[in-house]
Specification:
The complex is a heterotetramer, with two copies of chain A (422 residues) and two copies of chain B (445 residues). Chain A has 422 residues and is α/β, with parallel strands linked by helices. Helix content of chain A is 35%, strand content 10%. The longest helix of chain A has 39 residues. Chain B has 445 residues and is an alpha/beta fold. Chain B has 13 helices and 15 strands. The chains are: A alpha/beta (422), B alpha/beta (445). Chains in contact: A-B, A-C, A-D, B-C, B-D, C-D. Chains A and B meet through helix 2, helix 3, helix 4, helix 5 and helix 6 of A and helix 1, helix 2, helix 3, helix 4 and helix 5 of B. The complex binds pyridoxal-5'-phosphate (2 copies). The site of one pyridoxal-5'-phosphate has 13 residues of chain C, from helix 6.
């Protein structure tokens, strides 16, 4: 029997230190608006609560306790110093609607982060508001739509995604009211240009790609892809999930992407938190920048200030009640300060070295890389098809067995186009 | 090279194994013309010590004094245990609990969270969070349109007493699916019953307490909406539900979808994020619920365990047909909220809510004894109230800040003469002395 | 093979974020004073360090994870709020030699704590400097010696301790240059008065007792003991280890004890920390107060100030470089604020209720309390003599078996005079 | 009733089981005349929120600005991971590791700590800590007297360059065992070789760097002491040993006992405590070492494990014949120090030491260019230095505090005209700009 916190509750028990003087509200609120029966909240002592959640924590794998060779998720060390920096009272106790005159500290950090991310991605403006990669994708899709609408190009309701794309890409397309069109990937992991040419056309709003791709190889024909799409009047969206692989080596902006998101909970080492929160800032080139969401931070003679919808008439608008996941943005900012330009470049070098090394060692041990003739990027895929066929031991079995040895398993069965992918 | 463990010898031996000369060789598949030469415009990295000094300086600039500002983000006391536990590495640095065997801690916690939220709202099920309250409302509207397909309408009625940035967020997100968001007018700060307006609406949104802190007549509005064939989406502050009738009990059948922001449940204000949005609904609609859901099950030996359930709704399985594109959610904040709700418990949360009501009423009573300060609306309010001042509240705000008081939220643009109105709030964390300081600072000018 | 941090080290690896610009010290220090070979400190990355110590932590039992029914140690919940209160920058970053003009915050807390402890113990002055119970004991022993010396009573070099006394009592006697004389305990757990009368005399400097005693029962003849010792010219020392049992019920001062220590890491819930730190403030009645150690905190027109040796000519002097374990004192202060007078009284009530209840349940289950006719205090002793004799299963075996069930075992084999004590 | 889990129903059912009416009955063995009626003079308890508010107010009063004060307690940077990990419940709330099976984490950590300390000092063994540096020295002296029984002397020679409160602590503690503490005079701030003085001494204490920040001639002094049949007790700052010759290598045979305070190793200044004292010695003397010692061993299946070892030295076994009365030590600080030393590592600690030397030299160079400020002594100093000012340094201190600078430690009473001398210190945490602020504040007056 799992011992939930409710199993530990007893009527009228409580953590009394958390009491608040509770003069009645008689007369202040109308009777018919009041709750009849109390909610099912736990009734435990403070020690019971502390012990329960401490012991729950101990049941998790985590970066701080285990090695997590998860592809696509960029499981870096989450620096404790960065957590500490963001958990200061000055940041935590700041109300989001404090006038900017009294918010120069946090606004300054956000402004500088915008600039750093522009530099890293080769874009001309960055908005920090999106709260995760998927919201960044939605932002990008909406900006692409807004751009076409602005140019009275109303027929473009299709967005192209490779078959290997992350599930959020097609799901985002739907949320944005676009139709996801799939494009094939060839046997070497690159987008099939013929397939692309077949789907691209005057209904093409844009294409969503990540590079390195979800096949974990660098999309070599990115220039050709960009030309094909741009020539057809479409725009290029870069899914930043794999930016870690190319930090300081190649910039999405230089690859002709028009708009992109970054996953700060990947590339900028903010913790995954058992599922979130993340942050998915969006950057755009000059063409798409006017459509970026609000608020953003600008710098003027009066110091840093919020840039709101009124100053950005073409903006797609707001994505959250306030300014997205500021606490995560502060962590990413602190991380980028510690790494600096030189450190960020080394990240892609050593991530790539590690992945290629592990791929080589596993190949030597008899495993089969999905793309044996390609370089690994910051990750690589192995196909356990042969093992599954010959022995009946599937990728799932390998994954579970790794857990027994204290390793979180790699991302399995993704991308789906690689059989028994590990 | 912060955080990179490689020694020179490590790198050399790895390169030897790979049969290459330098790490550069590994990037030879990137076409030369798109390669860039590092990030020369960025400064070099600094040590943790230097970073910390810089961040402390920034943090110290922003300490702003006693907070009487609410408007969707509240200064509640957070028991120390909440973040001590939430910051444990096993919660903080765990991945999304897809591998159930490696994630029983997080999964059980989410299950407990869902149970608490469902009970607070008096709904059947809750999900494991979406981004924030505003985006939760957008998801709720998309969900309502999917559920209420038979209504064939795509008109969603939203009261003008809704939090304005919630409305803005909804508009950015839902309009792209051909949904039109229409406004329900307000009278004396609350939404009157306007049956006619509800005709042919797929859903009606109702915020309780509303943006002005006032209590709407949720029972009647729910009845009217249901009578008109519209679903009811409740937007609530979960803290208030320790006292107020839960949306699941509004009218005869209750709201159909309930959403809101979890910030009051142990989440620091932190410039507004990260917090989390929650979404609850009836069991009948669970397959339309976006986001993750944790469930309790048994393994093959009959031992209880927890897993992510109904994953076929989600983007990683259903792709373009998913209920939402959400992937990363706000899990760590859910962790904090679950611990918060456990520590406060049934009685504690009620005391917090009671103190919020009492303190705000005390503040309002004290302020309205001063000359020329009046309540704008007549209805019952919870822990926020709109007051009219004899001067511009943007300027008043600045003046009060000099005296260490964050006086409230200027309502500029919200209604006629809104520039002299301000929304004030006093949570359980405000003492009688804090309230006196407010009065004193106002008097001192 | 245990995997120590040294097994994980590699030459020249490091946690680079912890670097400090290191211009050479050439010329600043003489060559012959410099170290030849570097010390054996670990060489690991930051993640290796974090993971190593996180996983070490996970190997411990602790109050936050397990139930610890340890007698004599008062294993309370250590409030997280108190830890947070003491870990604020304003306290942590305060240099101990900051002038008192700029230390009114911390001095105010310490002063109020002195007052609270005076109240709780019924003493007239309290010094907070001793860093643990044993140092408090030494303080008391030295004060007793100083008192006799001051009264030219030079022959008193013996101190009486019951046979059941905690090991620190006799060890303290030796450290203070006193001879520990043992006195018997009768079959009901009280001090044997005849035995006491036999050892007491003109060489008696004093007696060290705790009440409830280490036999876990209340010493009922405390008045008689005090009379016998005082009549012989000796002084009474109270070992505060068991104060939790009588908070607000009986005060050592009212029992005629002249000097005492408290264990804040017991009665005032500061964490045991895997072995320490603690704090062992010493209180004294008017007779012994002049001999209290320095520094103490006093209140004057200029605010709070340090009271140093110069103002206390009879003081036994200093016990530490600064002011003892201030961080622990702040925690005890915060705890006592949260409990208040009413809360402290309830502590002894409920600790006593729990102990008596568990003793009853174990008796009903067939176990044998060491003193079956006595009340339990905040703890009780069981003798497993019969079980050991009949089945060969010793107290040690019971202890280890409890660990298997996730309970830290009770204090075993203490006091030694109870056979197979559990 | 903070922290008491009992509900009314719990209490009732327990009383029933016990067959009594009220909890009061359980206290019936306490004679009525010594019972007291509660604690009426104390205020009633307050909530965590109210306590936290009070403590924050107190903490905020004391923020004192940029620290140039050392004198035995130093403002070093502490990596965030140190206290994040040390504050984990399993370290913070664990009991003393007597039950090895339940304490492998703490035991292995202490074992690693001992290894690091022994290596830093170049000694064979270290214990698991004593209270602080000053009491460690008292223990070291008691230990030396026990070891060097054959010398039959109880005279311990202590340099007058020793930290004054260390001396005071030693005097309070060791004099009661008939040990006499005698002073070695200083010349130009260091201890000259005075062979005669060492005759018939059981031990000689040597602090390196000494209280004035100066380097003593440890090699020669050690040789002289050993030649005179005295043991050598080194008092060291462990951080400095990343650069300085370790006491185990002083002279031909090294010091016999080494002690000091661990505060520089990741422990916040926190008004001077808790920190920890450490004690190291030669293997030959290990049975005279007070306090706990963790050792590595194997269980019956041959698996490595850690235990407390040589417990027969300790009070709980040996009682009146124990090496010391110490029981509770400073374990949690040892935890922090072990994590600190691991994060800094071999190279990092050296960089900290180097930066301390360099920054203090820079500070001294800058200050001594100002008129009438001079170094009092001529010898080499590490990261502290005594400067003579043209005014009372107690007053100077106050003046500088107004400008946010904690300028140093006034040396009033330490030597002639000590009231115009001040001991200054600049750790690695001081920037060039901090040093300029000092100079500027002095100049501005
Ligand atoms: C390739 C790719 N795109 C998008 C996402 C979505 O990002 P998020 O989970 O932050 O919404 C992910 C993350 O899982 C990803 O791996
Ligand atoms: C009865 C008794 N006296 C004295 C002590 C010594 O206290 P400390 O460990 O704080 O030195 C203890 C603690 O173990 C004890 O139980």
């Amino acid at each position: 029997m799992a011992d939930t916190i409710f199993d530990k509750s007893r009527p009228n028990r409580r953590a009394t230190a958390q009491r608040v003087d509770d003069d009645a509200v008689e007369g202040l609120l109308p009777r018919n608006q009041l709750r009849g029966s109390p909610p099912l909240l736990p009734e435990v002592s403070e020690l019971q609560a502390v012990r329960h959640f401490t012991n729950l924590a101990r049941k998790n794998f985590s970066i701080d306790t285990h090695f997590y060779p998860l592809g696509s998720c960029t499981m870096k060390y989450n620096p404790r110093g960065v957590h500490r920096a963001a958990m200061q009272d000055g940041f935590l106790k700041r109300h989001p609607l404090t006038p900017s005159s009294h918010s120069q500290g946090v606004l300054g950090c956000l402004y500088e982060l915008q600039e750093i991310l522009q530099d890293v991605t080769g874009t001309s403006e960055v908005c920090l508001a999106p709260m995760a990669g998927a919201q960044g994708e939605l932002t990008g899709a909406l900006m692409i739509k807004a751009y076409h609408a602005d140019h009275n190009d109303d027929e473009r309701d299709e967005i192209i995604v490779p078959t290997a794309a992350h599930g959020t890409n097609p799901a985002t397309a739907s949320m944005a009211g676009l139709i996801a069109k799939e494009v094939e990937v060839d046997s070497e992991g690159d987008v099939d240009l013929d397939s692309l040419k077949r789907v691209v056309g005057r209904k093409t709003a844009g294409v969503m790609l990540t590079n390195p791709s979800t096949c974990a190889v660098f999309e070599r024909r990115i220039q050709a892809i960009s030309d094909i799409v741009h020539d057809a009047g479409g725009l290029l969206y870069y899914d930043g999930a794999n930016l870690n692989a190319i930090l300081g080596r190649a910039r999405p902006g230089d690859m002709q992407f028009d708009v992109l998101h970054l996953n700060l909970h990947k590339t900028f080492a903010t913790p995954h938190g058992g599922g979130g929160p993340g942050a998915g800032p969006v950057g755009a080139n000059e063409r798409l920048a006017p459509y970026l969401p609000t608020p953003m931070v600008m710098k003027s003679d009066q110091g840093y200030q919020w840039l709101e919808q009124t100053e950005r008439p073409k903006s797609i608008g707001r994505l959250s009640a306030f300014m997205g996941n500021v606490g995560i943005l502060l962590r990413a900012y602190a991380y980028s300060l510690m790494l600096g330009g030189n450190g960020l470049c080394r990240v892609s070098e050593y991530a790539t070295l590690n992945a290629n090394y592990l791929m080589k060692r596993l190949s030597d041990a008899g495993f089969h890389p999905a793309y044996p003739d390609r370089r690994a990027t910051h990750e690589f895929a192995i196909s356990l098809r042969r093992e599954a066929k010959e022995t009946g031991v599937t990728a799932m079995d390998f994954a579970k067995r790794l857990l027994d040895y204290g390793f979180h398993a790699p991302t399995t069965y993704f991308p789906l186009l690689i059989p028994e992918c590990f | 090279m912060p955080f990179i463990p490689h020694t020179h010898a490590d790198t050399e031996s790895m390169l030897t194994t790979l049969g290459i000369e330098s790490i550069n060789d590994l990037f030879d598949e990137i076409p030369a013309d798109i390669q860039c030469d590092g990030l020369p415009d960025l400064r070099d990295g600094i040590s943790e010590m230097a970073m910390q000094r810089h961040m402390s300086e920034k943090a110290h600039i922003d300490e702003t004094g006693i907070c009487f500002l609410g408007a969707g983000c509240y200064d509640h006391y957070i028991p120390a245990a909440v973040w001590d536990l939430t910051s444990r590495g096993e919660f903080l640095t765990a991945y999304t609990p897809y591998q159930a065997e490696a994630s029983q801690g997080t999964l059980q916690l989410v299950y407990e969270f869902q149970t608490m939220l469902a009970s607070l709202t008096a709904m059947d099920v809750a999900n494991a969070s979406v981004y924030d309250g505003a985006s939760a409302l957008a998801e709720a509207i998309l969900m309502a349109v999917r559920i209420n397909r038979k209504s064939k309408s795509r008109r969603v009625m939203v009261p003008s007493t809704l939090h304005p940035t919630y409305l803005a967020t909804v508009e950015s997100i839902v309009s792209h699916q051909g949904i039109s968001v229409e406004s329900l007018p307000a009278e004396d700060g609350v939404t009157p019953m306007l049956k006619a307006k509800l005709d042919n609406a797929v859903a009606v949104v109702l915020q309780q307490p509303n943006f002005f802190g006032l209590l709407e007549d949720a029972d009647t509005l729910t009845e009217h909406a249901h009578a008109a064939g519209a679903l009811v989406i409740g937007v609530v502050n979960p803290m208030t539900l320790a006292l107020l009738k839960p949306p699941g009990e509004w009218g005869d059948n209750g709201a159909d979808i309930v959403c809101g922001d979890g910030q009051p449940l142990g989440i620091p204000m932190a410039s507004g994020g990260p917090s989390f949005g929650f979404l609850c609904t009836r069991m009948a609609h669970v397959r339309q619920l976006p986001g993750r859901i944790a469930g309790r099950t048994q393994d093959k030996d009959g031992n209880d365990g927890f897993v992510l359930t109904l994953q076929a709704r989600e983007q990683h399985i259903r792709r373009a047909k998913a209920t939402s594109n959400i992937c990363t959610n706000q899990g760590l904040l859910v962790t904090a909220a679950t611990i918060y709700m456990t520590l406060l418990g049934r009685q504690g949360l009620k005391e917090v809510a009671t103190a919020c009501v009492r303190n705000t009423h005390q503040l309002v009573d004290r302020l309205t004894t001063l000359p020329n300060i009046e309540k704008r609306f007549t209805g019952h309010y919870f822990h926020e109230c709109v007051l009219d001042f004899p001067e511009s509240t943007v300027e008043l705000q600045q003046r009060m800040l000099k005296q260490g008081i964050l006086a409230g939220h200027p309502m500029t643009g919200m209604f006629d003469e809104g520039d002299r109105a301000m929304l004030v709030c006093a949570t359980e964390a405000r003492t009688a002395q804090d309230i006196e300081s407010y009065v004193q600072a106002l008097a001192d000018g």
